[in-house]
Design brief:
Layout (H helix, E strand, L loop, with lengths): L9 H21 L5 H14 L8 H9 L1 H10 L9 H8 L2 H4 L5 H20 L12 H4 L25
Helix pairs in contact: 1-2, 1-4, 1-5, 1-7, 2-3, 2-7
Length: about 170
């Protein structure tokens, strides 16, 4: 599938492939109501990122976007009446990234985590507020930085480009 997933178990690969739908439904459910603006924007965003995002993650988003809407719909359908009750389960699933990210190449781990956080922020901003201002609820704000993922990727210096000698 993707070379950076080769060292992961089948369960870990599945979590990586379901991360964006999980983040979508977790953020959408955080304020107690799942808004179609949030889930609809998430589907579009996953598709956009498949061709216009960090180059190393584009194949990942291509695969994720194939059945993204279907996964989100299934997760939303399975939510309890009080959607906030589902948040601990989503948090527990995403905690799995604390074991997954160290197994990935450091640059990929950092880019994936950064991408997941920005995805969560985009979803939170997709709904609510007056003219989308102050649209992130306090419940969403508590989750968008994905505090359940405590892994900190090492800082990797960009390699300097070699200049041809004259």
């Amino acid at each position: 599938m993707f070379p950076f997933l080769d060292k992961l178990s089948a369960t870990e690969k599945e979590l990586v492939m379901n991360a964006m739908p999980i983040i979508t439904v977790m953020i959408a459910a955080a304020d107690g109501k799942v808004d179609s603006n949030e889930t609809g924007w998430a589907t579009k965003l996953a598709d956009i990122r498949s061709y216009s995002h960090e180059e190393k993650l584009q194949p990942y988003y291509e695969k994720v976007s194939e059945d993204f809407d279907q996964k989100v719909r299934m997760m939303v359908k399975a939510l309890p009446n009080n959607t906030k009750d589902a948040i601990p389960g989503f948090v527990a699933q995403l905690e799995g990234f604390n074991e997954i990210l160290p197994k990935l190449p450091p640059k990929i781990a950092g880019k994936l985590l950064e991408s997941m956080k920005s995805f969560a922020t985009h979803i939170a901003r997709a709904s609510g507020g007056f003219l989308k201002m102050a649209s992130i609820s306090k419940e969403e704000k508590a989750l968008i930085d994905l505090p359940m993922i405590t892994y900190i990727p090492p800082v990797i210096e960009e390699e300097e480009e070699e200049t041809p000698s004259e």
